[in-house]
Amino acid sequence: MSFWTAQTGPHWDGDAKGDGTDRCIGEVVCPDCQNVMARFLEGANGVGLRAWIPARAVGDPGGRDAGWECFTPIADDQPADQDGSVLSCWRGHGGLWIDGAACREVVRLYRERGKKVRHAAGRAPGDAV
Question: Domain residues of the chain, as ranges?
């Protein structure tokens, strides 16, 4: 099973914030530099995780502002606890990881505290890098 349920298309400038109607309840940050790599957005249809994955743009191969936006809904039963994805920091830090269990923990902490949660990404398992 794939962690991401949708690739919502190319994205520029490294920061996917939804359509503006969703509330940011959490962020996944790089443990090395605290750069935000993904956001948990809550909207009318529940909570989803949006991440932007750096990629080279054909028109600007040396640029750092192009990438792909990926999305997955976060629910009690999806993604599975052990199902996860490698994340890459836009500042060059790689080998980072988010999984279903961490996603549900961020949502749980937000519900308890009532304020946005910053979650440091873990290190990717050896076979995932």
Answer: 6-121
